[in-house]
Amino acid sequence: MSSTVITRNVVVRNPQGLHARPADLLVREASRHQAEIMIEKDGYRVDCKSILSLLTLGAECGTEMSLFAEGADAEQAVAMIAELFENGFHELEPEG
Known about the structure:
- By secondary structure, this protein is α+β, with helices and mostly antiparallel strands.
- It has one domain (about 5-90): HPr-like (Histidine-containing Protein, Chain: A, 2-Layer Sandwich), CATH 3.30.1340.10.
- The protein has three helices and four strands; from the N terminus they run E-H-E-E-H-E-H.
- The protein has helices at about 20-30, 50-55, 75-85; strands at about 5-10, 35-40, 45, 65-70.
- A four-stranded antiparallel sheet has the order 1-4-2-3.
- Helix 1 packs antiparallel against helix 3 (about 75-85).
- The relative contact order is 0.32.
């Protein structure tokens, strides 16, 4: 029995990119899920549950990446992680 891989494209929106604090938030969220969750930048795919792997991506503001998740809660995992990216890991200045 094979499960479906859920994919979604995300963009780093926070000004300082995927540095230690947002990478930690991403790892914490990914670790809440049973699914295997990977993220890919320029053909290089790493485990979202490994902060060191995430930091090796060198993802700056504006970087486009692809999320991949497979497992029982893959859809929820991708949705929650994509939300972190959309919210700029809570580092975006309020508009207005």
